[in-house]
Amino acid sequence: MNRLNMVLLSLITVLFFSCKTEPDSKAIRKEVLNIHDKLMIDGEKVVKNKMKLDKILISDQVKLAPDAVLEKQKINDLITRLNATDEKMMDWMHFFKDDFKGKTEQEDLDYYKTEMVKIRAVEDGYIKVTRESDSLIKAYQVK
């Protein structure tokens, strides 16, 4: 009985380690495109937030603030960062090859893994700058 358990355990171990658990290039490509689609929607929010920040810049709230110059600079910097984040997305889309075909499955996989890293970086930028702009817009009570 003890020997049978050892054989079964060895067999299970071999089967476990021989299974390929890494996703293929098609799965990663699909995930990259899903993130892209989500960011396109987030991009609309970025544009709306830029418009709201422009509205704050010309408002009397900023003009009459005790530290108006600093507030305007803060808002302008945030608008610049929103624009830069949006540009990064446009650059990524411009260089992304949706129909990439490498010579091997591994080349396809490597390409889409690299693109995943790039699109995740864009996504992180969107999240950070959107949160900051949302917070500032909320502080100025702009709807």
What this model shows, in words?
The protein is mainly α and 143 residues long. It has one domain. The protein has five helices and no strands. Helix 4 packs antiparallel against helix 5. The protein is elongated and about 80 Å long.
Element order: H for helix, E for strand: HHHHH
Please identify the structural class as seen in this structure.
mainly alpha
Whole-number total of structural domains:
1
Distance N to C terminus: 73 Å
* Percent helix: over 70%
Number of strands: 0
Q: How much is the radius of gyration in Å?
A: 24 Å
Biggest beta-sheet profile? none
Count of alpha and pi helical runs? 5
In short:
Helices cover about 80% and strands about 0% of the residues.
List the helices and strands and how they pair.
Elements: H1 2-18, H2 25-57, H3 60-63, H4 68-95, H5 105-139
Helix pairs in contact: 2-4, 2-5, 4-5
Offer a few descriptive terms.
single chain; 143 residues; mainly alpha
